[in-house]
Amino acid sequence: MQDLYPTRTMGEPHLLARAEPVARRAWKPGAPLTASQIDQFDRYGFLVMENLFSEDEMKLLQAETGHLLSDPTGLKDETVVAEPGSREVRSIFEIHGQSRLMARLAADERLAGVASYLLDDQVYLHQSRLNYKPGFQGKEFYWHSDFETWHAEDGMPRMRALSMSVLLAENTPDNGPLMLIPGSQRVFVSCIGETPDDHYKQSLRKQQFGVPDEQSLAELAHKHGIYAPLGKPGTVLLFDCNTMHGSNGNITPFPRSNAFFVFNAVSNRLVAPFAASKPRPDFIAAREVEPIKPVRGNLRGEGVPA
Ligand code: 6CS
Ligand code: FE
Q: How far, rounded to the nearest angstrom, does the alpha carbon of residue 4 sit from its chain's CA centroid?
């Protein structure tokens, strides 16, 4: 398959133009977003949707998140990733396969239904994770494009995926909120440096390969600025697979936890990695494609087909 986004194969970084649309469907009556929301996503590469879930639904999700953190015994070992240099839990991966409630959340029409509309295809979960960004110990996520990693290490062919971060705790200016570069989704920053074997064992704690060079980052930040959406629990931050983003460490006592779901278009299923010796494990990059049938209703129930 032709590699439209070569990365980690050249001696110096390159800025390549995106070869495909961001929002793949225009607004029409019955769309799950307004025309302005679709335009915002297309133009800036992200969209903030406030109050998508009720306080009562958030209490349910926060209780489940606390339970998963306090009693990880029922979780698959490899899915629990610690912060660099500590035993504090940084993330729990494949939460949709280890928690019924998280699977229900991912399938909700407010998430999967919106993703399917914007990607103009049925969607499946490429990856899910609970990010805890614990107080005092939560370390940074350096600048990166998720797609660069998913293309190089997972074999994701095209930019036809998006992420949704459901805020489980208040994102304030102080506790390491996600920072994004608006408009960066239209430029592919190819990275230098060959992917080490089993890179994920290191990168999920602190990523050092597939990291954009400072000159490219500076150019994007000077041109487009940096934006850190804030919000209370129940806010959902939706962003394109190629929008440049990162977050600072959290030295406040207040955790910055979120539930993170990556929806990939069924037509964009993974092939062989474009720049790695072997694919990453399924708990990070699903190779079984199970199209999601979005459901409607309060998260306390199973929901009905949307
Ligand atoms: O490597 C990955 O798939 C994960 N790493 C980061 C920093 N963001 C995307 C994804 O969760
Ligand atoms: Fe990321």
A: 21
In contact, 275 and 152? CB cutoff 8 Å: yes
Element (H, E) at 143: strand 141-144
| Range of the structural domain that residue 143 is part of | 15-291
CA–CA gap between residue 224 and residue 187 (Å, rounded)? 12
Other beta carbons within 10 angstroms of residue 87's beta carbon come to 7
pLDDT digits (tens, 9 = 90+) for 209-234: 778 999 999 999 999 999 999 999 99
Output the CA angle 203-209-214, nearest 5 degrees: 120
3-state secondary structure of 202: helix
In ligand 1, the atom with minimum distance to the C-alpha of 200 is: 1
In a domain, 4, yes or no: no
Indicate the DSSP class of residue 233: B
CB 23 within 8 A of CB 118: yes
How many A from CA of 184 to the centre of ligand 1?
A: 17
What CATH code is carried by the domain that includes residue 100?
2.60.120.620
Residue minimizing CA distance to atom 7 of ligand 1: 141
- Whether 10 maps to a domain, the answer reads no
Q: What is the ipTM of this complex?
A: 0.96
Residue 212 in any domain: the answer is: yes
CA 204 to ligand 1 center in whole angstroms:
7
Q: How many domains does the chain have?
A: 1
Residue 178 lies in a domain: yes
Residue type, 258: N
> pTM value?
0.97
Atom from ligand 1 closest to the CA of residue 154: 3
